[in-house]
């Protein structure tokens, strides 16, 4: 019985290598740009909520927010009695 299609033997390193080309580079570049655009888009939509005083503390101005400022207490150097 003769083999009509001769087999090509490859060494182990060549057989394990994938094909690399510009299409993989373009996929990586485009997906990174789309991820960055999505991140900045969501951040841009929520920037006012993050920076607002009333959203975080329930107050409407900076003077009311100052009521919630806790004074700094120095750390104790010895154990409590």
Which helices and strands occur, and which strands form pairs?
Layout: H1 12-16, H2 22-51, H3 53-57, H4 62-65
Which range best describes the helical content: under 10%, 10-25%, 25-40%, 40-55%, 55-70% or over 70%?
A: 40-55%
| Share of residues in strands | under 5%
pLDDT below 50 for ≥5 consecutive residues: which ranges? none
Number of helices: 4
Which class best fits the helix and strand makeup?
mainly alpha
Terminal CA distance reads: 96 Å
Query: What best-fitting shape do the alpha-carbon axes yield?
Result: elongated
Query: Measured on Cα atoms, how large is the radius of gyration?
Result: 31 Å
Query: What string, H for helix and E for strand, traces the elements in order?
Result: HHHH
Give the biggest beta sheet.
none
Q: Average the pLDDT over all residues and give the rounded result.
A: 78
DSSP summary, beta strand count: 0
Write a concise synopsis of the structure shown.
The protein has 81 residues and is mainly alpha-helical. It has helices spanning 12-16, 22-51, 53-57, 62-65.
């Amino acid at each position: 019985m003769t083999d009509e299609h001769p087999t090509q033997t490859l060494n182990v390193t060549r057989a394990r290598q994938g094909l690399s080309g510009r299409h993989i580079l373009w996929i990586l570049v485009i997906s990174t740009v789309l991820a960055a655009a999505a991140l900045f888009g969501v951040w841009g939509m929520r920037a006012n909520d993050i920076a607002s005083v009333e959203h975080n503390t329930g107050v409407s101005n900076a003077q009311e927010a100052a009521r919630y400022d806790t004074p700094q207490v120095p750390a104790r150097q010895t154990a409590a009695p």
